[in-house]
TrEMBL record, chain A:
<dbReference type="InterPro" id="IPR013563">
    <property type="entry name" value="Oligopep_ABC_C"/>
</dbReference>
<dbReference type="GO" id="GO:0015833">
    <property type="term" value="P:peptide transport"/>
</dbReference>
<dbReference type="InterPro" id="IPR027417">
    <property type="entry name" value="P-loop_NTPase"/>
</dbReference>
<dbReference type="GO" id="GO:0016887">
    <property type="term" value="F:ATP hydrolysis activity"/>
</dbReference>
<dbReference type="GO" id="GO:0005524">
    <property type="term" value="F:ATP binding"/>
</dbReference>
TrEMBL record, chain B:
<dbReference type="InterPro" id="IPR000515">
    <property type="entry name" value="MetI-like"/>
</dbReference>
<protein>
    <submittedName>
        <fullName>ABC transporter permease</fullName>
    </submittedName>
</protein>
<feature type="transmembrane region" description="Helical">
    <location>
        <begin position="220"/>
        <end position="244"/>
    </location>
</feature>
<feature type="transmembrane region" description="Helical">
    <location>
        <begin position="40"/>
        <end position="63"/>
    </location>
</feature>
<comment type="similarity">
    <text>Belongs to the binding-protein-dependent transport system permease family.</text>
</comment>
UniProtKB/TrEMBL annotation, chain D:
<comment type="similarity">
    <text>Belongs to the ABC transporter superfamily.</text>
</comment>
<keyword id="KW-0813">Transport</keyword>
<dbReference type="GO" id="GO:0055085">
    <property type="term" value="P:transmembrane transport"/>
</dbReference>
<keyword id="KW-1003">Cell membrane</keyword>
<dbReference type="InterPro" id="IPR017871">
    <property type="entry name" value="ABC_transporter-like_CS"/>
</dbReference>
UniProtKB/TrEMBL annotation, chain E:
<dbReference type="InterPro" id="IPR000515">
    <property type="entry name" value="MetI-like"/>
</dbReference>
<keyword id="KW-0812">Transmembrane</keyword>
<keyword id="KW-0813">Transport</keyword>
<protein>
    <submittedName>
        <fullName>ABC transporter permease</fullName>
    </submittedName>
</protein>
<keyword id="KW-0472">Membrane</keyword>
Length: 332, 314, 514, 331, 325
């Protein structure tokens, strides 16, 4: 039997929304108050991440990429659905002393993701110390080896985060994540905030670490160029749902879903000069009031009556490729 | 309001223009101290406050008289103007009050009580308020809602009334005053801390700490609390000042401290009856000291607010 | 328009004369309402609405009413009004905090109308002070006061119809009460067209209001300012010793919570039970210093319980001299040469400079080795603790709390009978004896004389009994008298005020002299 | 493209210098910038964060605030000097002849005023008409930038609009008076790809139709490649390279430009990205000569002297002692 | 909106409940008003009579239930001292306090806004530093002290202003107002100024802080970039943003100001509810104390509600919604 994949998620959903207090419940019973607003940030998402893979997640702002990432990284509890790590529920089992954590997250904002009141040594060393991953006396060496691996000057061990540039902070964040020996790194827009020239440095660092440590990545980004560069497989999200997934190269070469197509068409590329842009019109609808049927139909140039009523399922359209579009049925 | 969510952080602050590491291993404290020292007024206020605090601390050793020891106070020396000499040849530099108490000594001892009241209530209220506020922000949901309702209730009730009622019910004494002030003030701290903690809590380093499975207590007190400290400190200075001022007002209303152990506020209140008969020193001098004390604390607090401003510090 | 504006320390709460016994209320009410018997400035009874009274037998007093008196609305004043007023009080006034009904209860009084101008009062035994008692009972008009809501209708003016020198004009709570001249007053021409009482609680503010001319006259000028006011040609000060005795009251239980030895243990026996200790404490008090240094020269050091001119005053009793050496010697003789500790309690908003006096006494006692702590508090707390603050109290059984306290006693009726009974007689809840005796002092020799005096109509005999009782008490230092308060009023130049002993400020006693 | 060579350029910036006088010292945030913009031309101004792009924009429009100050150089708007012009004149020109769009659409609109108020205020600043007329005009302007239901939107507050819509409102405001020059400071950086596409299309069209000269500030080379005619690259307050977009992107003359271009991931190539080592220095600690020298592979002794912006080809210039054009031309 | 108000009401009912409980039992613990009213010659029987008259002879909890029962029907009891329904006493004196508080508010805004704007426009100028320095005093100095000093200087020494009371009033809409007569105004000036000091300092600070923040905001820069005139920017674009925190904070503090009137009224003998409270506390007039507090809480609820509504008007980003603010 095949070993279970590193991470397997089934039917993940996440609903945000204020609960309702007693008064509110009473009032809404009499129709005096609107029921609380609920955001379905992620809906019915299933995915599999195999060991050693780099999986990209792309989509517009607010489509639920970060929420998905956070759930996978065990920072947010999914409202429904479950996440299995090597076949066992994530975070459910008791960790034995000294074992690493399965998943770690690298954050978008290198300025807010480091505690400003801790020195670099403590930032990196705290978690392995708490979890007993290294012996107390080896901690210094351990921290230094991580710093070296992530390209941080050892002389800076006693500094505070605010004394570093964005790129260096991101390195510190990576070192901090690596310190608990994760198997999967969830990179949520990990390079988006960095300058062009620094971005390349960090992307390279990720690739190096992947090779050296055999890490697996869930790479969340809206920068399609970077995603195309680093990912093996790509998930395209729209309004909380996955609309298309498949090997990166194929998706970028021949996108199937109209949304993916539009997304790729809109990306400026350095080799496309004086482009006449023909963008999809309209903004992404508010997740508070998602449109019925296919979530994309209000902006979709090919939308039919069916798209307005029936939510398309994510279906295999080719080996390893899934798409959620009624148009595929029509052609098939 | 999430308006700022998309600014690129590199533009956040001028402290570190291009994100280059600073050459010196400057500790945060030294940086704050340096920034603080740049204002002459604030430095003066700090020095003045330090002098006042030291004088209050050393009162038993530097005061010419123990104004609480009734054998040292002589009614026959009462109402002497500044610079007068007593029967026993002692000089009352700032005069005496209606009981023959040396004003200088009374001020020094009164400062002790006023500062004690201010600091004690400030610190206790801070501890309670900070703990409540932190937990509230961190736990969120119904606990947060409940705590904040209570805080709202407390805050919606004017301080002076609460203190008045409590003192009427509890009776008089330093401990009672401190208690009343704590009851009045904790909510301010709780709300401020919660506000700051909510902001900090939404920062990614807290999420990172959760992702690292660091444990709630450690996150609360090791990560969240230190980052709320600057704001807390500022609120604390303001609250200490207002506690001192409130105690003075309560003493004035006759609900403060026992008359043989006057705080500055009580000295002022007692001395006011003598004001119109030209014995200004009994009320005016303690008043000036109270004023200088509170102003200096406020100025220090203001400056701290400026230099600890996260927008400047990060 | 002659307007007199008076700044008063306490605001009158009601114009219903049967509502309270607070001086602040009474002094305003007295402008509108009158009593059968008036008190002169030395609190001695003089004719009021009654022109004369006599005891027609041991238990019956007959009062002849004044003829031709009319109410402010023109109705004639008759015996029916008197009977109505007495009945109204006896019936109890709904919600009244402290109506003067008890003065009618004393001696078990009953009353009847003889004719329109004659009223008889009967008592359940020989009872000498009926006239003094009736000086506390204002008379209201039956035709307006019947069926009105107590206090409310008086404050609005509807029922505030009396026979007095002034008519109700305006009652603005917290701001002013104004009365205007009654042109038809039987007592003669009234000088002021209007009199306005303005409450100014803060001493300093009240003085300021006088100084800048907002008011013409104030009561209780701060004592600290008395010397400068006297020196100021723009202002006049009037003064008179009041009937209020300020004294220190020791407590006599075997064990007192606030009397400790030098190590802080409760002492047994209680040293305050030793008269030498009490005398020592009295000798240690420098009453002149208190007078000069705290009271602005205005107090009357004393060893009496009623002021000069009052029935029962004994000239032979002179205030104790200040003699700390003798005091220390007495302490040593009593076996307390090393001193002990006690706490002196007192109010801080009741008597003139009360907290300051407490502090000064503490100073003086500490000097002879009795280390005295001070605890002063607002009067509401002080009096309820004083009377029944001890933890052993339960409803119907009052146990005082303090071991030594500063308090005062006002001899309202101008005569010593109820003063002796109140503060020197043994406490007896049933008879009302010793109702001000919160030290629980008890001396059969005093009790015998005091109880007898209450039943003795013959003035000379009563005077002898009272003076004997007072002398016994003073010899024994049952309590330690300090002084009689001297009350002051300050007014702008051009006013003259015949001050009265019972502390009230009456406009008819103020006249223009320029 | 219309190229009226004989008339003065829409915007001519000559040796513009702006400095901030801070506690830590003097920062030359704009250090001798020269630019020329013709009518209808789109100039891309690229550079890393902190390189002085925004400050260049503010300096041109006279919006530098203390402790900053323009310390030298000239800005000519259709021949009229702006540096040193009095406040009233500057105010009269701003919004009418030269306009600016800011990076963050969340922050550029006043959160407590209705869109209508903000737009009519901007309109009435330079035109006298009734509020009603202004409203009608403003409504048309909104429709023109592709906002559906403009009447409804006029009543809205900024927070009720999406980021893309807000940016369109800002653009509509900037274009109200059909200015000669618009400076767009990273107006799409905060927006999604699909919205960015909409805005780019809009701006392109408007410039083409109205002949407005546009300075498009960005750090994204790809965007510039898509819309700009010419490109200027900034580094540490200075322009290091300038020229037609194809020339610069295909044959960069400055090593920094080349590094930038190289570090953009290229589709299909999964190998390590060539990276420029190090990072841009703090303006407080600039090396004496060429600011890029510490990160430059070819740096030599000569680089200790400050290079000038010199022509390296037709209509091109670079600030390098060793421009790469000749050697790399054959690439 | 409905939910918002409903929540507020539930909340304030709860406060009322807790507060009456505390005050009722608390006041009972401290002392007994009877001993203040009783004359020295009043014996035990007489005292018992009074206690019965005031209804104090019943157990406290029973008294409390009676109170709650009456309160629900709108009767908060009669004042022990005045014998008048406590609520009517408060109504009688309320206008004076409100007038004082509003006058203070007007002074705080009228003086504070211009000063704050001045200080915010040129933060480093000497005048700005001076303004800020003086505003520190407003926070620091106890109110009673200022009040007494003012009396000393302006009433006693200079004789310009009266020191006590309210002066002539004119009746408008059935309420007595003193600000419409010269005499009334002269009486109002000092107490209102004293009371306003704290708010004044606050307004100055908030305005200055707001100016400093808003002046540098992108949207102000954008307005400038569009050539909108400075006056228009300041008076509309900047001002509306600045007013938001000021309104919120002032709204929160306004209740406190009414409460702090306790001190001011006592010093200036202003016939308002605050002075009455002090007197009521001195004689333990429990019905009056409780009624005052009930009224204060009620007032707060209303003020807070108004402020929240005003706030949502000023700041379109705020929705009146769930409980938490
Ligand atoms: N804590 C939260 N409470 C309420 N709503 C939330 C919360 N976090 C996210 N959301 C909402 O969930 C939706 C998805 O948010 P998410 O952050 O996952 O999007 P994203 O794809 O990461 O967007 P971006 O590209 O802007 O980071 C958004 O509409 C967001 O407003
Ligand atoms: N108020 C200021 N005080 C001091 N320095 C400033 C100030 N504003 C900007 N700077 C500095 O000026 C330099 C140029 O800033 P500018 O905003 O022009 O950069 P930019 O190229 O627009 O960067 P970004 O791409 O991040 O917007 C930076 O180093 C910045 O730190
Ligand atoms: Mg995200
Ligand atoms: Mg910029």
């Amino acid at each position: 039997m095949k070993p279970p994949p590193l991470i397997e998620a089934h039917g993940l959903s996440k609903v945000f929304g204020e609960g309702q207090d007693l008064v509110g419940r009473m009032l809404s019973r009499f129709g005096l108050e609107r029921p609380p607003r609920r955001v379905h940030a992620v809906e019915e998402v299933s995915l599999t991440i195999r060991e050693g893979e780099v999986v990209g997640v792309v989509g517009e702002s607010g489509c639920g990429k970060s929420t998905l990432g956070r759930m996978i990284a065990d920072i947010l509890q999914p409202t429904t659905g479950e996440i299995l790590h090597r076949g066992r529920p994530l975070g459910a089992r008791r960790r034995e002393k000294g074992a690493g954590l399965a998943v770690q997250m690298i954050f978008q904002d290198p300025f807010s993701s480091l505690n400003p009141r801790k020195r670099v040594g403590a930032l990196i060393g705290e978690a392995p110390k708490v979890h007993g991953i290294v012996a107390r006396e080896d901690l210094d060496d351990y921290v230094e080896s991580l710093m070296e691996r992530c390209g941080i000057d050892l002389a800076y061990k006693g500094r505070f985060a605010h004394q570093f540039s964005g790129g260096q902070r991101q390195r510190i964040g990576i070192a901090r994540a690596l310190a608990v020996k994760p198997e999967l790194l969830v990179c949520d827009e990990a390079v988006s905030a960095l300058d062009v020239s620094i971005q390349a440095q960090i992307v390279n660092l990720f690739m190096d670490l992947r090779e050296e440590l055999g890490l697996t990545y869930l790479f969340i980004s809206h920068d399609l160029g970077v995603v195309e560069h680093v990912c093996d497989r790509v998930l395209v999200m729209y309004l909380g749902r996955i609309v298309e997934s498949g090997p990166a190269a194929e998706i970028f070469r021949a996108p199937n879903h109209p949304y993916t197509k539009a997304l790729l068409a809109g990306v400026p590329r350095i080799e496309r000069r004086r482009t006449a842009y023909e963008p999809i019109e309209g903004d992404m609808p508010s997740p508070l009031a998602p449109p019925p049927g296919c979530r994309f139909h209000p902006r979709c140039p090919f939308a039919t009556a069916r798209c307005r009523e029936e939510t398309p399922a994510l279906r295999e359209i080719a080996p390893g490729r899934l798409s959620a579009c009624h148009l595929n049925d029509a052609t098939a | 309001m999430s308006a700022g969510a998309v600014t690129r952080p590199e533009q956040a602050g001028p402290v570190d223009p291009a994100g280059a590491p600073r050459p010196a291993e400057a500790s945060a404290f030294a940086a704050v101290a340096r920034a603080y020292a740049r204002s002459l007024i604030a430095m003066t206020a700090l020095v003045v406050f330090a002098i006042i605090a030291v004088a209050a601390l050393l009162a038993p050793w530097i005061a010419p008289q123990n104004p609480y020891d009734l054998t040292q106070v002589d009614l026959l020396d009462n109402l002497l103007p500044p610079g007068s000499e007593s029967f026993s040849g002692q000089i009352y530099w700032l005069g005496t009050d209606g009981q023959g108490r040396d004003i200088l000594s009374a001020i020094l001892y009164g400062l002790r009580i006023s500062l004690l009241v201010g600091l004690a209530s400030g610190v206790i209220a801070l501890l309670i308020g900070a703990a409540v506020g932190l937990v509230s922000a961190y736990r969120g949901s119904w606990l947060d809602a409940t705590i904040m309702r209570i805080v709202d209730l407390q805050l919606s009730f004017p301080t002076i009334l609460v203190a008045l009622i409590l003192l009427v019910i509890l009776g008089r004494g330093v401990d009672k005053i401190v208690f009343a002030l704590v009851v009045v003030q904790w909510a301010y701290f709780a709300r401020t801390v919660r506000g700051v903690a909510l902001v900090e809590n939404s920062r990614e380093y807290i999420e990172a700490a959760r992702g690292l499975k660091l444990g709630h207590l450690r996150i609360l007190f090791g990560h969240l609390l230190p980052n709320c400290m600057p704001t807390l400190l500022v609120v604390a200075t303001v609250q200490v000042a207002s506690a001192i001022s409130l105690e003075a007002t309560l003493s004035f209303l006759g609900l403060g401290l026992p008359p043989t152990q006057p705080s500055l506020g009580l000295l002022i209140a007692n001395g006011f009856d003598y004001m119109q008969s030209g014995r200004y020193w009994i009320s005016l001098l303690p008043g000036v000291v109270l004023l200088v004390t509170i102003v200096s604390i406020n100025v220090v607090g203001d400056r701290l607010r400026d230099v600890l401003n996260p927008r400047l510090a990060r | 328009q002659e307007v007199l504006t008076i700044g008063v320390r306490s605001e009158a709460s009601s114009l219903d004369p049967h509502w309270t016994q607070l001086s602040a209320d009474l002094q305003v009410q007295e402008h509108i309402f009158e009593k059968l018997v008036n008190l002169d400035s030395a609190s001695q009874p003089i004719p009021g609405l009654a022109v004369s009274w006599e005891a027609i037998d041991d238990t019956t007093w007959e009062f002849k009413l004044r003829e031709g008196v009319t109410w402010h609305d023109g109705e004639p004043f008759t015996a029916d009004d008197v009977i109505f007023s007495f009945d109204r009080l006896r019936g109890g006034i709904e919600g009244a905090p402290a109506s003067p009904a008890f003065t009618l209860d004393k001696g078990g009084k009953t009353w009847e109308k003889v004719d329109d101008l004659t009223v008889r009062v009967r008592t359940d035994g020989p009872y000498p002070t009926v006239a003094e008692d009736l000086a506390m009972v204002p008379i209201v008009a039956e035709h307006v006061a019947r069926g009105v809501t107590a206090s409310v209708d008086f404050n609005s003016g509807d029922a505030a119809i009396g026979t007095g020198p002034f008519l109700y004009n305006e009652f603005r709570s917290g701001d002013r009460i104004s009365v205007v001249k009654n042109p038809g007053w039987w007592g003669g021409e009234v000088q002021w067209d209007e009199v306005v009482f303005r409450p100014v609680t803060q001493d300093a503010s009240r003085l300021a209001a006088l100084l800048n001319g907002d008011v013409d006259m104030i009561d209780y000028p701060p004592t600290a300012d008395l010397p400068s006011l006297r020196d100021n040609p723009d202002f006049t000060v009037s003064s008179i010793p009041s009937d209020r005795l300020i004294y220190v009251m020791p407590a006599y239980r075997d064990v007192e919570d606030y009397v400790l030895d030098n190590d802080g243990n409760v002492m047994q026996p209680n040293p305050l039970r030793d008269w030498r200790v009490r005398k020592a404490l009295s000798l240690a008090i420098n009453r002149e210093a208190i007078r000069d240094r705290i009271m602005g020269g205005a107090s009357l050091p004393t060893r009496n319980v009623v002021p000069p001119g009052f029935f029962g005053y004994d000239e032979s009793l002179e205030a104790d001299p200040y003699d700390p050496e003798a005091a220390q010697a007495l302490l040593a003789e009593a076996g307390y040469g090393d001193g002990f500790q006690l706490t002196l309690h007192g109010p801080n908003d009741r008597y003139i400079n009360d907290a300051r006096i407490v502090e000064a006494i503490a100073q003086m006692w500490t000097r002879i080795g009795v280390k005295t702590a001070v605890d002063t508090m607002p009067r509401n707390i002080f009096f309820s603790d004083l009377i029944r603050g001890h933890e052993d109290s339960f409803p119907g059984h009052d146990v005082p709390k303090f071991s030594m306290s500063l308090t005062g006693w006002g001899t309202v009726a101008g005569e010593a009978t109820y003063t002796v009974s109140g503060i020197l007689e043994t406490y007896n809840a049933a008879t009302g004896g010793g109702n001000g005796n919160f030290g629980r002092y008890s001396n059969p020799r005093i009790d015998a004389r005091s109880i007898l005096a209450k039943r003795t109509i013959d003035r000379d005999e009563r005077l002898r009994l009272l003076q004997e009782a007072i002398n016994i008490g003073m010899e024994d230092y049952a309590l330690i008298p300090l002084h009689f308060q001297v009350n002051h009023w300050a007014m702008r130049r051009g006013l003259e005020h015949a001050a009265r002993t019972n502390e009230r400020t009456l406009a008819i006693e103020v006249r223009r002299v320029d | 493209m219309t190229r009226a060579v004989d008339t003065p350029p829409a915007l001519a910036v000559e040796d513009l210098r702006t400095a901030f006088f801070t506690d830590a010292g003097r920062l030359d945030v704009v250090d001798g910038v020269s630019l020329t913009l013709r009518r209808g031309e789109i100039l891309g101004l690229v550079g890393e964060s902190g390189s002085g792009k925004t400050m260049t924009g503010f300096s041109i429009t006279g919006l530098i605030e203390p402790p900053g100050r323009i310390v030298g150089g000239s800005v000519k708007l259709a021949g009229e000097e702006l540096v040193g012009a009095d406040r009233a004149r500057l105010r009269a020109l701003r919004g009418r002849r030269i306009a600016m769009v800011f990076q963050d659409p969340m922050m550029t609109l006043n959160p407590v005023l209705r869109i209508e108020t903000q737009m009519t205020d901007a309109l009435l600043a330079h035109a006298s008409m009734s509020r009603a007329a202004a409203r009608a005009k403003v409504r048309d302007a909104l429709a023109e930038v592709g906002i559906a239901a403009p009447d409804e939107r006029l009543r809205a507050y900024p927070h009720e609009l999406s980021g893309g819509m807000r940016q369109r409102v800002a653009i509509a405001i900037a274009l109200l008076h059909e200015p000669d020059v618009v400076i767009a400071d990273e107006p799409t950086t905060a927006l999604d790809v699909t919205i960015q596409g909409q805005i780019l299309a809009l701006v392109q069209r408007l410039c083409r139709e109205r002949g407005t000269g546009l300075v498009w500030i960005t750090h994204d080379l790809a965007v510039v490649a898509g819309i700009a005619d010419r490109i200027a690259v900034m580094y540490a307050g200075r322009i290091v390279e300038e020229g037609p977009v194809d020339d610069v992107l295909d044959r960069p003359a400055h090593p920094y430009t080349r590094g930038l271009i190289a570090s953009v991931p290229v589709p299909g190539r999964r190998e390590r990205l060539p990276q420029v080592p190090g990072r841009m220095p703090s303006l407080l600690e600039l090396p004496p000569g060429c600011a890029f020298a510490p990160r430059c592979a070819q740096a030599a002794e000569a680089c200790r002297a400050r290079p000038d912006l010199l022509p390296v080809g037709p209509a091109r210039a670079a600030r390098c002692h060793f421009p790469l054009v000749e050697t790399e031309a054959a690439r | 909106m409905v939910g918002f108000i409903a929540r507020r009401l539930v909340q304030s009912l709860f406060v009322l409940f807790v507060m009456t409980l505390i005050v009722f039992f608390g006041v009972n613990v401290i002392g007994n008003p009877v001993y203040i009213f009783a004359s020295s010659e009043c014996n035990q029987a007489c005292v018992n009579g009074i206690i019965a008259d005031l209804g104090l002879d019943r157990p406290v909890w029973e008294q409390y239930f009676v109170f709650v029962g009456n309160a629900l029907s709108g009767d908060l009891g009669n004042s022990f001292t005045f014998g008048v329904p406590a609520m009517s006493l408060i109504w009688e004196r309320l206008p004076a306090t409100l007038e004082l508080a509003f006058a203070a508010l007007v002074i705080a805004l009228g003086l504070g806004l211009p000063l704050g704007i001045l200080a915010g426009l040129r933060p480093d100028a000497i005048s700005s530093r001076l303004i800020m320095g003086v505003s520190t005093l407003g926070f620091s100095v106890p109110v009673f002290w200022i009040g007494l000093i003012l009396i000393m200087v302006f009433s006693v020494q200079l004789g310009w202003l009266p020191s006590i009371g309210r002066g002539d009033t004119v009746s408008i809409l059935g309420l007595e107002a003193s600000f419409l007569t010269l005499d009334g105004l002269s009486h109002l000036l000092m107490p209102a100024f004293t009371l306003s000091l704290f708010m004044l300092a606050m307004v100055i600070r908030l305005t200055r802080a707001g100016m400093r923040e808003v002046l540098h905001a992108d949207y102000v820069k954008f307005a400038r970039a569009n050539g909108i005139s400075e006056t228009r920017i300041l008076s509309v674009h900047v001002m509306k943003n600045i007013l938001i925190p000021i309104v919120t904070v002032l709204g929160m503090e306004f209740g406190g100001v009414i409460a702090f009137a306790v001190v001011t009224e006592s010093i200036f003998s202003w016939p308002g509810v605050g002075k009455m409270l002090i007197d009521a506390i001195a004689v333990l007039d429990r019905p009056l104390i409780v009624a005052y507090l009930v009224f204060v809480v009620f007032m707060f609820v209303i003020i807070n509600l108004l402020v929240d509504i005003l706030y949502s008007v000023l700041d379109p980003r705020v929705r009146l919604g769930g409980g938490a603010r």
